[in-house]
Amino acid sequence: MDHAARRAADPVRFAHRYERREDQEVAAVIAACFAYGRVAGFTPVLERIFDAADGRGGPRRWVDGFDPETDAATLSPLVYRWNRGVDVSLLALALKDLLAGRASLEEHLPADGELSDALDALILAVREAAVRSAASLDLTATSFEQLPRGFRSFLPRPADGSATKRWWMFLRWMIRPATEGVDLGLWTSRRPSELLVPVDTHVLRLSRFLGLTTRTDGSLRTARQITASLRAIDPVDPVRFDFALAHLGISGACKGRRDDEVCPACPLHGPCAVR
Ligand code: SF4
């Protein structure tokens, strides 16, 4: 796989737009939150968000100085499916709250216990920071449930059984080393062996083809089963296969069925059950 070419068609490209670690981290959170649907659908929205951030000195400085009037007004026309500009403003203000006086969001990720529990704590921290920030956007909310639906969709919890694909992808970007030039390896308090695979439709389908899971739903239990299968292949870095699996589907190279023109040349032709 040509990782550089595929990275250009992946939301992680927005983190690689920056050189400073603090910019990469903030860009990664925002890009991961929008990484649903077609890449061609969310890419223009992310371009507009990061153009706005760059106009204020880059994502971290933009978040640190986010103004609920002027910056929120710049974002307000944004629409992507069920997300609106106000969702981005709320996310930026939550990050501003959490990053105040801190070098990294990693300081909100508990260093002990299961990584899925730590991720749950991080997501709860973002939720709570958003509630604290809501009034500055003239939103009336005393609980996460009262925040806009689009914003709430950014923050599903592992504790509710959700596979939280976008957040495991974010953690992969942060924790896996930059070996292939895709992930960033910015966070060191956790090891790659602790990661769960981010399960989207492509990864789920290919995992079923490869016998990595028998499950059919995109749940946390499925993510655990696929990761356990991958761990048998590489216990130190089980999710190193994720980018290649996902992009076999994203690129359209795998049609999701037997194709006599495509399958014989596929690198998974041997183990794939539908070849
Ligand atoms: S062998 Fe064919 S069906 Fe199986 S993963 Fe490859 S392209 Fe997809």
Commentary on this structure:
The chain has 275 residues and is an all-alpha fold. It has 2 domains: 3-189, no CATH class; 196-275, Endonuclease Iii, domain 2. 48% of the residues lie in helices and 1% in strands. It has 13 helices and 2 strands; from the N terminus they run ααααααββααααααα. The protein has helices at residues 3-7, 13-16, 21-33, 39-54, 59-64, 70-75, 85-99, 115-133, 149-152, 165-175, 201-209, 220-233, 242-250; strands spanning 79-80, 83-84. Strands 1-2 form a two-stranded antiparallel ribbon. The longest helix has 19 residues, at 115-133. The chain is globular, with a radius of gyration of 19 Å. The two termini are 19 Å apart. The structure holds iron/sulfur cluster. Residues 206, 209, 254, 258, 262-263, 266, 268-269, 272, 274-275 line the site of iron/sulfur cluster. Iron/sulfur cluster binds next to helix 11.
For the structure shown, list the relevant keywords.
single chain, 2 strands, mainly alpha, two-stranded antiparallel ribbon, 2 domains, binds iron/sulfur cluster, 275 residues, Endonuclease Iii, domain 2
Overview in brief:
The chain is mainly alpha-helical and 275 residues long.
Computed Rg = 19 Å
Q: How would you characterize the largest beta sheet? A: 2 strands, antiparallel
Number of strand segments = 2
Into which percentage range does the β-strand content fall?
Answer: under 5%
Number of helices: 13
With strands numbered from the N-terminus, the spatial order across the biggest sheet is 1-2
Q: How many domain units?
A: 2
Please mark out the parts with pLDDT under 50 across 5 or more consecutive residues, or reply none.
Answer: none
Mean pLDDT across all amino acids: 95
